[in-house]
Task: structure prediction
Amino acid sequence: MRYFPIFMDIQKRPVLVIGGGEVACRKIDMLLQADADITVVAPSIKSYLMNYVEEGKIHYIKGFYHSELLTKEYVQVWATTDNSDLNHQVYRDAHDARILVNVVDDTPHCDFITPSMVNRGRVQVAISSGGSSPVLIRIIREQIETQLSTKVAMLADFGADKRNVIKQHFLTVDERRKFWETFLRAPEIETLTTRNELEHLFSQHLSKNIETTAERNWIEYHQETEMLTLKSLRLMQQAEWVICFEDCPSEFVELCRRDAERLFVSSEQEIVEYLAQAEREKIRVTILMKKGHLVRNEKLQSYLSSDIYVPTL
Result:
């Protein structure tokens, strides 16, 4: 993974854009959505950008770029001109000034790149191939756009509004997380269309006790992650612990819930000990087991006979 995925808060923070053409227009529109404090440097700029200047949305320095412009503590610099030599000079100057820089459409001269975005209000999905395959990313974005309901924006706003309510109602982070998982996975969510309906469902769930129980799910894997079933992926995302042998391929482990604790073992007895602890502490566990693995530990066999086991395709 060459690029570390991160969402950067640039609200009211100074950003410098070199160039005033069509490319600059696109990038500035994106930066305005993030409410950045934008300064444009160019001998001339598009009338589209001049309207922004007149409205006080961006600052404009009329003239040619020079390195002294980087003395201000900008958090980002964008080089958007059609002059590659100038863009590369901006890149070098920004590096000397230790400012993150993006030379548009020139990945080797970028400290960061902008992913393709799917926006649903507060929810943003970013997709990137590291600049290697923009057409593939566009196709993936189209697929996500069709799958991600516009209702997601309403749910995100609702969750933000109810954060303090949930903090007051549930004392622990674990209880809060399990409430939201139960609420957001409720079948009724799919049919709701208004805020009032959402409030009513929320009140119903808030009046119920959150039951904390231990749960063990055994997920069989083979050679390809694509062979995992949808049920496997759903259970892997609900796990609080993920237990697997040390030779389990990382691509399977990474499909599990991000904040789940990863427990790598070298023997079946270690699994038994972890499962006993999970049962005492009421923890939801996913055990990744390679296809064809023969369980020999008697206690582990007894667990396996009573648990959920999901074979690979």
The first strand starts at residue 14 and ends at 18. The chain has a mean pLDDT of 92. The two ends are 28 Å apart (CA to CA).
